[in-house]
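> forwarded from #structure-qc
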């Protein structure tokens, strides 16, 4: 039995789609906060089990009979460490034999503030006594594609990444890797630094938008504070805006770049190119 946390999230749904190609639905358990959002999974024969990251007892109950667990990191930045402690404790109590965890690219040396909670979680896993693998995911291309509509409207793509190279991949690329690691044997003890095959800068993203849309888009680099303020001015929550601005500055320092091609080797195909991702969003 394989369990997936955050199973109704954007990444979790894609992981389960991949798993259903190789694994019987009755061998999959979707750990979800709101079962109403998981009706499509139930209809496919996936076991839906309700548990919140904040409720260790519910998590322990949900993990009964589970052999392998994919922990998709909590989306609640600032709450991840205690929430991940709950799920790891629950896995121990339920007798889970293997955990794969979605961490952050080069978490142990990353300049991104996001790395702190991932490092803490990685240590918890090391101390748990359970076999585990780390899926250190780089940036989702979708994180930047969300800004394409206003960039096309105003002719400016804003950020604070300078000329830092971003080796992003799509959620679908990372999901394929996670599905493989959690369903196959032989991954225990592995640390996978996962990123797109080709790095690109935000200037190159603006150029690709210009090329494909026919509308002139330029990249405007900003300070971390100004970029965060700009994000807040269009309605982003303060915490999210600050995190995105910090991550852009981290990208300017190489924090979102990796050229090991580990991800494409793991999924057996090239990662989705920036050009194809831009084509898709347009």
């Amino acid at each position: 039995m394989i369990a997936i946390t955050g199973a109704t999230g954007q990444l979790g749904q894609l992981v389960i789609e991949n798993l259903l190609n190789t694994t019987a639905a009755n061998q999959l358990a979707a750990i979800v906060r709101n079962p109403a959002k998981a009706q499509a999974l139930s209809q496919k024969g996936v076991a839906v089990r309700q548990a919140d990251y904040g409720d260790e007892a519910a998590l322990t109950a949900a993990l009964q009979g589970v052999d392998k667990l994919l922990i998709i990191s909590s989306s609640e930045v600032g709450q991840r460490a205690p929430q991940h402690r709950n799920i790891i404790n629950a896995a121990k109590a339920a007798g889970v034999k293997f955990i794969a965890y979605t961490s952050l690219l080069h978490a142990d040396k990353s300049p991104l503030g996001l790395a702190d909670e991932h490092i803490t979680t990685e240590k918890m896993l090391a101390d748990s006594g359970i076999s585990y693998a780390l899926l250190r995911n780089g940036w989702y291309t979708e994180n930047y594609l969300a800004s394409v509509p206003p960039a096309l409207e105003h002719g400016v793509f804003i950020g604070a990444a300078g000329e830092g190279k971003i080796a992003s991949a799509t959620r679908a690329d990372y999901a394929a890797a996670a599905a493989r690691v959690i369903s196959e044997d032989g991954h225990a003890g592995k640390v996978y630094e996962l990123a797109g095959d080709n790095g690109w800068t935000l200037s190159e993203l603006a150029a690709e938008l210009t090329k494909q849309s026919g509308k002139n888009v330029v990249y405007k680099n900003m300070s971390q504070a100004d970029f965060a303020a700009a994000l807040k001015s269009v309605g982003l929550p303060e915490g999210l805006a600050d995190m995105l601005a910090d991550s852009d500055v981290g990208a300017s320092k190489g924090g979102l770049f990796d050229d090991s091609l580990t991800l494409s080797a793991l999924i057996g195909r090239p990662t989705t190119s920036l050009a194809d991702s831009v084509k898709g969003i347009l």
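QC bot note: DSSP finds 13 helices and nine strands in the chain. The mean pLDDT is 96.
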